Amino acid sequence: MTTHTPVTKNQTVTLSFEDLTHDGAGVAKLDGYPVFVPRALPGETGTAKVVKVKKNFAIGRLLELTEESTNRAEPPCPIFKRCGGCQLQHLDYEGQLAYKTKHVTDVLARIGKIEDVTVHSTLGMEEPWRYRNKAQVPVGEQNGEIVAGFYAERSHEIVDMPSCVIQNEENDRVVQLVKGLAKKYGIRAYDEKKHKGTLRHIVTRHGKTTGELMVVLVTRGKELPNKKNIVEEIRENLPEVKSIVQNINPKRTNVIFGDKTEVLWGEEVIYDYIGDIKFAISARSFYQVNPVQTKVLYDKALEYADLNGDETVIDAYCGIGTISLFLAQKAKQVLGVEIVLEAISDAKNNAILNGLTNTEFAVGEAEKVMPWWYAQGVRPDVIVVDPPRKGCDEALLDAIADMKPKRVVYVSCNPATLARDLQYLEEKGFKTQEVQPVDMFPQTTHCEAVAKIELV
Ligand code: SAH
Hints:
By secondary structure, this protein is α/β, with parallel strands linked by helices. The chain has helices at 93-112, 169-184, 227-237, 291-305, 322-328, 341-353, 366-375, 394-403, 415-427; strands spanning 12-20, 25-30, 33-38, 45-53, 58-67, 118-119, 134-142, 145-151, 158-160, 199-206, 213-219, 241-248, 260-266, 269-274, 277-282, 312-316, 333-338, 359-363, 382-385, 407-412, 430-438, 448-455. Helix 1 packs parallel to helix 9 (415-427) and helix 2 (169-184) packs antiparallel against helix 3 (227-237). It is globular and about 65 Å long. Bound molecules: S-adenosyl-L-homocysteine. The site of S-adenosyl-L-homocysteine has 18 residues, from helix 5, strand 17 and helix 7. This is 23S rRNA (Uracil(1939)-C(5))-methyltransferase RlmD.
């Protein structure tokens, strides 16, 4: 069957852009047929070369702009176009926040059929740069030289990166130091095609309020030549480092961490504060990457939970207990559940660290533990969920419906699964009251949002 598309490959077309896709490409329509062009903005007109033609859409490469958006900005990062890490540096921050509000609103309506709900304007940062507290940098070799940086967009080519404009300076320093030490001590980078070599990733974490640093060297095997010297030089050069660990990942995989972590020097964790609460964070535990906005996000979750001190609250997907401990300050009792064992052990320690005795943490799949809790007679007043990108399992949403809490607070890093899950809950008698997007990831297309849902 032949299909008729209004464009052909390699053709140069003139386009007027009217929207942005979820991954930040400009959208122009030719007789209703969409053409997606990376780094073009709504309100702009220009020419693009068609590089891919599909039945329902085409992809173009931007050639020239004849009309520029008033929200267009000069990307400060020299490798913005090659690195896949940021997608929106060419859009000013006001434009980014408006894009995120619109994206959440559109997706709720399109996927969840949720239209009569207030989506507030996205809460942004005063300084939307250098915000990340964690770097996970792949290591490779180019012409026999160690490189460390980012995978170029849609590829496995490693782009060397001396500095990253959304990364905390401290993390940049760690990465540059370790890269230099790997060179000096002849450490070979891991070669993913041949499954040979040693150093796979340099991971660093920074506690914004304590200044503490953790360095994680992810290696293919247990062996790390000159381990002692490397540790000593890291300590000499960066006294803020409180923890140096080696994680061993012997698998052929894109997943960064392996199962085994060994402390090479110092503590197993570093500490950080969000508000008044102190957190111990270990190498593999999930901890929000934007500490400034995490406070904003959790404050909003707490506001939506609307606690008076008498409630039993469940925090599903609780990680190291961050939201749980925020809630525990205002609730009678908080039950947290999380799949990663180390995170739960961090959560328990964090509760002790903060003298919060009204918490209990369980390790397991939230979609199994919640129905079990229901069967045990647990009837929470409020349930908070903060799932990974794939959203909540139906078994978990069913358990929520069975437990009949007054309120559900849904913290989401993916508007599409948020919309799907809200629709499911609405079918079970809940009603979405309001949604607040919070910009956790400036310069990127990632959207985080908190929704307040009530049983009606
Ligand atoms: N609320 C925490 C963590 C949110 S990230 C915070 O704000 O820091 C999502 C968490 O869900 C991660 O810690 C991840 O390990 C966990 N997770 C993923 N799948 C899960 C599942 N099926 N059951 C329970 N936890 C899960």
